[in-house]
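User: My advisor, Dr. K., asked me to get a structural model of this assembly before our group meeting. I'm new to this, so sorry if the format is off. These are the inputs:
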Amino acid sequence: MRRRGPGSVTSLVVVALVTAYATVLLTTIVMLGRISRENGFTGDGSREVLAILGTGFLVVAVVVSATVLTNAYAVVTASRARDVALRRLLGSSVAQERRLVVRDGLRTGVLGVAAGLVGGVAINAVIGVTVGGGLRSGVVEPLVVVPCAGVLLTAVLAAWRGSSAVLDVQPAQALGAAAAVETGAPAEPPRWTAVARVLVVLGLLGVGGAAAGGVLAPQAAYLGLLGGPLLAFGVVLSAPALFPRWLNLLGRLWPSTPSGVLAQRRLAHNPERTGRTAAGVVVIVSVVTMFVVASATLDRAVDRMYEGTSGAEGAADTTMVLAGVVSVMVSAAALISAIGLCQTIGLGARMRRRETGLMRVLGQSRADVRAVTIGESARLGLGAVTAGLLLGTFVGWAGAQSLMGSVVREHVVAPVVPWWLLLALAVVTMALAVGAALAPLRDNLRGTPLAALRG
Amino acid sequence: MTTTPVLQARGLRRSYQSGPQTVHAVDGIDLALDAGEFIAVMGPSGSGKSTLMHLLAGLDQPSEGTVLLDGDDLTAMDDEELTTVRRRRMGFVFQSFNLVPDLTVRENLRLPLSFERPPVRPDGAWEATLTDRLGLAGLLERLPHELSGGQQQRVAIARALVRTPSVVFADEPTGNLDVATGRAVLSLLGELVRSLGCTVVMVTHDATAASHADRTLFLRDGRVVDALDDADDEAIARTMLDLVRAS
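Assistant: The format is fine. Below is the predicted structure of the whole assembly, which you can bring to the meeting.
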């Protein structure tokens, strides 16, 4: 019997969350569609917009979950290297070890989907009661089977991909006198895959096309609605290849102190893991930013059209309200990416226990150990936030431009980025990233350096 | 000429509870090591040699007794003072090399300097001498995983000596090396510390390794039961065998 680590619980929560989210979202979309059809609203395209938007959110949530799950399995497998090494030493094959992880993925997937379905149906029932009579055909749409199957498949695939960490385990690691540090070579960032490239290019074409087409007609916004989810998908798949480079670029802006160099190098040690950790955060930050920037930019443009006349009051309020609504819509994906961020950083810091001991033996002060670990988390958090903000600002501006380009006199609207948005997103992400490292850091520093060095 | 010992242990004891029993891992050891002295500590498993080394390095607190480094009492120091002492006045060489995998050879050997706040500038001439004598000159920009075991251990020795410490502690330094490489690495360590006047405390199972030392101490049940000066590996191995058979 394999002992269930914190990783399995995390995976279970992630699977249940995304399933519940899919159930609620899908049911709501179908329900709203039916209501608007019955009330004869057919020509304004709002149903299509809703369907595209909803599907987009769903795709983003599932893709974010997939990266978080893959990372969870990779990190947990790596943190159990000694157990795996012992079983390998006693004759278990790599395939057997990977099968164990995949079986765990399957079990987690089934349990999580079941729990998520129950939760989602319960939430639907609550919504049905509160909204009243809206859910006449029952509380679950048959169509929910599709995302559920998708989530299950995602969990198993994520376990399979994550289990490749088994390949890095040498049976001899089970024998004594293992090194105190991960001795493996720092990995090269993985290749930017063709699929990821195509998705990014298509996404950018869609979003860019929307912005350009907006000069002619507001219908260009549909292009952006298609391009946005494709871009999000592409960004998640590209993150392992591109995010480490982005971090390197940002790293040049920091003063190159010894502890800073160490923090930067540690992030680069496993670029794939770092990239996957950041992917979810980048996407969520950009989705929130996109809506807020789009709304603020629209408000400004409308304001300027009605300059001098009344009717433009409360524009700032609308932006705030929209930010709130969007936050609820992306809450599941945001929660999942936050869980992923905290888990990877937390487990990563925990795995540094022996390395911390080594550094302390060699004379690194406690304050310096803290500086390196916190610096590492802060760099990761800041990298993800800045990437998300830039991307979201661009897409958000493109959205507003597509709607207003044909209306405003200059044919181009300037993006408006509310400062509170930057601050809030940065503070939340940094707090999560740094906070996740604090508990393991305290553990690593407790007791003598020797105790830490022994693991 | 009389000199004060660099490293001195007086009445050193370390005991701990193991179930209902009190185990004396180190049971009354007195030592005085002069500058430039190279000692090997041998003994069967569980004889207390690792505990002794940890006590001498201030990594473990004795139950009784004191450890003096250049006359300063390590047992009276707090964690921060001990950290500073380890950084400035001690060097460490491990069985598994323990180089930081993400740092180049140059960065690894400068690690103890980089731990200072503000960081200490490397002494270029000394660094050049060190890397030259250890045959690392062409490897400075490499990463540890690109090096052989022997090369990695030579980097670890450079790291241990970069601040010209008073004492170098070596924990089974040849344990992960083949015989020829182990011998070459220890010859280099011996030459360097003798020219620097560093004291070395080396814990080892390996009689050949111990034969590089000026003096070999034999431990059993936490006590020094025998000592040999300038012995060859054969004499050391024989003494070890007698020790094991007698227990």
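One thing worth pointing out at the meeting: The mean pLDDT of chain A is 84.

User: Perfect, thanks a lot.
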